[in-house]
Design goal:
With about 300 residues, this protein is α/β, with parallel strands linked by helices. Helices cover about 40% and strands about 25% of the residues. Helix 1 crosses helix 2, helix 1 packs across helix 3 and helix 1 crosses helix 4.
Length: about 300
């Protein structure tokens, strides 16, 4: 592959009319310019310029290469201009990954973000698996977990306190548990991924955290679907509080065992690949989420 810098230097030589003139224009040594021209001719296997003590003359192939070199020079200038625009404006396609449950919080914010930055398009991928950001070209992932990949950067967005809830219709039918032990006799809605069922609910006691194993008729791999089931009166649900903010406000769900403290859940993070030059669209999105979720 030809070095585009050598082609640009070749074009500068022709424009300046001499190697010394090109060196002055490019602010480098005359020997550097001469050496780059020689290497370009060596790469091509053809002489581009006939040199004499008084002037330079393009060969036939030199004329043809000059036309292509000028196009490359224009393309490099355009690329530089595009890069400058993207570093000065929040624009472009932003690829975001989020869990199925997290969409309940994130999706309502996307309309606000794209209204604030109309030159940004957001492509949202909903997936509960641990997405490979680099392999799948994801700009930002919203995660509720510890960061284990040292090639990524994580910025905390918000805390994620847990709450136990149920629909008034379920409590009217089955009664409200007054102690942790009474949960064992209730229909509890469980989050499950593959063969892993999260059926141990953790509480905070005077001597530290402890767990209680619960059971119920429904297991789902989508936190949003579990909330829908709880609203429908299917059972009792332990869930991150932000996911049921609206249902608590409307009364569709009410707290259960609210007098018992729960350990804090893992925080929410915006995770993105470590880069020397972070795109403005990514930085703006993370700042926006910190602004909206942090409050």
């Amino acid at each position: 592959m030809f070095n585009p810098q050598r082609l640009a230097i070749f074009a500068a030589i022709v424009q300046a009319g001499s190697i010394s003139g090109a060196a002055l224009q490019l602010r480098c040594g005359k020997s550097v310019v001469s050496r780059q021209l020689a290497r370009l001719e060596e790469d091509l296997g053809a002489r581009l310029i006939q040199r004499s003590t008084r002037r330079l003359a393009l060969t036939e192939i030199g004329e043809l290469v000059l036309q292509e070199a000028k196009q490359i020079e224009r393309s490099l200038a355009n690329i530089e201009q595009l890069s400058g625009q993207y570093q000065q404006q929040v624009r472009g396609l932003l690829r975001v990954s989020c869990s199925m449950a997290g969409r309940r919080v994130l999706v309502p914010l996307l309309a606000e973000f794209t209204a604030r930055y109309p030159q940004v398009k957001v492509a949202l991928q909903l997936d509960d698996r641990m997405v490979d950001l680099i392999a799948e070209q994801i700009d930002v992932a919203i995660r509720t977990s510890a960061l284990v990949d040292s090639t990524l950067i994580a910025r905390k967005l918000s805390d994620n306190p847990s709450i136990i809830v149920a629909a008034p219709s379920y409590l009217a039918r089955a009664g409200a548990p007054q102690t942790v032990d009474e949960l064992r006799a209730h229909a509890c809605l469980l989050y499950a991924v593959g063969s892993r069922v999260y059926d141990e609910w953790m509480f905070q006691g005077p001597d530290g955290p402890y767990t209680v194993r619960v059971d119920g008729p429904l297991q789902m791999n989508d936190g949003g679907a579990l909330v829908t089931a709880a609203v429908g009166g299917a059972g009792i649900l332990k869930v991150p509080q932000p996911l049921v903010k609206d249902e608590l406000a409307s009364g569709e769900l009410v707290p259960v065992l609210a007098h018992l403290p729960l350990p804090p859940g893992p925080s929410n993070y915006a995770v993105y690949p470590a880069r020397d030059f972070l795109a403005l669209k990514t930085a703006a999105f993370v700042d926006f989420l910190q602004e909206r979720l942090g409050s």
